[in-house]
Amino acid sequence: MRLLYALTLSLLLLFFPRLVSAQPFTPVSVTGFNQDVIAEGAPNSLATTTIAMDGGSSNRIMYSNAFKVFAGLGGGGIVDNGTIVNGTSTYQLAPYTGNNALLLQRTQTGDLTLTTPAQFSKIRILSLSTEGTSLVNIKLFFTDGSSTNALTNYALADWFNSATNLVVSGIGRCTRAAAPPYSADGYTTNPRMYYIEYTLSCTDKLKTLQKINFTNVTTAGNNAPFPNAVFLAVSGNAFSQSITTTSVTPANCTGTGGGAIINATGTGSPFTYTWNTNPVQTTATLAGVPAGNYECAVKDASNCSTIYPVTVPSQSNLVLTLHSDTTICKGASFFANTVSNGTNFSWVPGDGVSNTAISGPILTPQTTTTYIVSSVLGTCVTNKSFTVTVVPAASAYAGPDVTIIAGVGAPLNASASAGTYLWTPATGLSAANTLHPVANPGYSTTYTLKATTPQGCVATDDVTVTVVPYCIKPMNAFSPNGDGVNERWLITDGGCLKSAKVKVYNRYGSVVFESGNYNNDWDGTYKGKALPDGTYYYAIYYYLVNGDSKFLNGNVTILR
How far is Cα 190 from Cα 62, in angstroms, rounded to an integer? Predict the structure, then answer.
């Protein structure tokens, strides 16, 4: 009986995965499977799978223990819960009711994408090949956008008889058919699943793995599109690393007494430490150093180093308080207002700094600038920075001076920076908060335009609106009789004209007077002779000082 028990246990250990309590390789949930290659139960192996795993007359797929019982098969079968344990590795197959394999024929490529991207020091991929050995390229993609060609021309063994990287064997295979017989074979030693193992580089294990790309690059043989490369699950050796500073001891102004303690934890322990000091210090504690910036090379058990920076400050009475971050309009200046008991100073950059060697220079930067100010007291040095944001200056042009005729408004042709606007005084304007108000004051007025940008920059400009009285008043009669009264025909009584064109006709339509620039000077004569009393007809084109023109016709009577 004891011998039978030992034999049974040996067979179980040989052909089925073992459960272990602690696994460095644990299942990694992935998506991207394109085929269902495992029959799980009723009604048949055809309906519960999507493709045969090998070609030609074989037409074979794998099956679960449940299907074995359902179909009355003599052996083999994959565990129903899909959890496969082998030594230190655990793999979790996708549910048998859906796609559970990434099956790639020659030249085909596909991805397995991690449901939750994570960091790993090693990964193992549960896989096999059918119809011979497949050559596979594997590429890793990370969440930072980088990628690594992990394996090139990797020889993935056929699912029969290989012993390299063996995970499980004797799982059996059967015909993919709509009805029995299913002709299960291979068990108790075949088919087999294997693992592909890849160790991530020191650089890559610090990254977060997002997906794994597979390409079947097989070219040898004449059985295209076979062999099939089949990928079933991913397992990973999780990686984590954290380096922290647990304490810092400031150095004094004599340059001694400074130090720090750091602590490294994670899956790569034990860690070793190497500081860039002279002499080199090799523990997690940095001691007896002056103020400054230091680096510690923290090396894990796999000889991967991480450079960890530590700053040891100085502890002194050196005070440095800078102007707060501020915003100015381009062209403006301000006092730096630095407070320090230091004896030496420097400003970087020096652009827009009146004196880079004093604590409180006048600053006039032309572009947004971050100033780094260094203050020195003895051996103690401190650096601080502040930013002066330079925004575009405001501009304002109230437009050219305008002359208007009383009662006839005119727009102000102003231009200015984008923002808000205010005209003062507002009297006589159609609006005080727009760039082009209509001005119609009752008397000559100088207006001031104030433009304010969204950043608060202000610019002003003035425009004068000169108001002249309305002056278009042609006389309807005059008496050029030499008595000094109404001797000339007046068509205007003010200064609202630039010029006027005049034609006067007699009742027969003949022109008796004409002027291209009339100046109120016609005395009722034609070619030097007095016209007879009577009614005459005029046509006048007025050209006004506000740029308008006006046509007027009517009659005028000469009475002597």
Answer: 11
Query: Could you tell me if 95 and 217 lie in one domain?
Result: yes
Write out the E strands in 415-533. Answer: 415-416, 420-424, 438-439, 445-452, 458-468, 477-478, 497-505, 511-515, 525-526, 529-530
pLDDT in tens, 402-457: 988 888 889 999 999 999 999 999 999 999 999 999 999 989 999 999 999 998 99
Structure tokens at 9: 């246990």
Are the C-beta atoms of residues 359 and 414 closer than 8 Å to each other?
A: no
Sign of CA dihedral 265, 266, 269, 274: negative
SS3 letters across 355-382: CCCCCCCEECCCCCEEEEEEEEECCEEE
In a domain, 7, yes or no: no
**Is 4 within the bounds of a domain?**
no
- Each residue's pLDDT tens digit, 37-46: 999 999 999 9
Tell me the residue range of the domain where 220 lies.
Answer: 12-238
**CB-CB contact of 136 with 214 (8 Å):** yes
- Preceding amide of 424 cis, omega within 30: no
Helix (H) or strand (E) holding 326: strand 326-329
Q: Which has the closest alpha carbon to 262: 274, 251, 250?
A: 274
Secondary structure string (H, E, C) spanning 474-495: CCCEECCCCCCCCCCECCECCC
**Domain shared by 155 and 87, yes or no:** yes
DSSP reduced 3-state for 9: helix
Assess contact for 469 and 443: CB atoms under 8 A: no
Helix (H, G, I), strand (E, B) or coil at 71: helix
Predicted confidence (pLDDT) per residue in 379-402, tens digit: 788 999 999 999 999 999 999 999
Beta-bridge mates of residue 405 = 468
Name the domain count of the chain: 5
pLDDT > 80? residue 253? no
- What are residue 355's phi and psi, to 5 degrees? -155, 115
- Per-residue DSSP letter, 101: B
The first and second tokens of residue 457, run together, are: 């920059």
Would the pLDDT of 6 be above 80? Answer: no
Structure tokens at 186: 């291979």
Token couple for 171: 């799982």
Neighbours of 135 (CB within 10 A): 19
What does pTM read for this prediction? Answer: 0.54
* Maximum CA extent, the chain: 161
> Which residues, including other chains, have CB under 8 Å from residue 359's CB and lie 6 or more apart?
336, 338, 339, 340, 342, 345, 375
Mean pLDDT of 120-145: 97
The Cα 211–Cα 216 span in angstroms is 17
Residue 407: per-residue pLDDT: 86
In angstroms, rounded to a whole number, what is the distance separating the alpha carbons of residues 286 and 293?
A: 12
CATH number for the domain that contains residue 512: 2.60.40
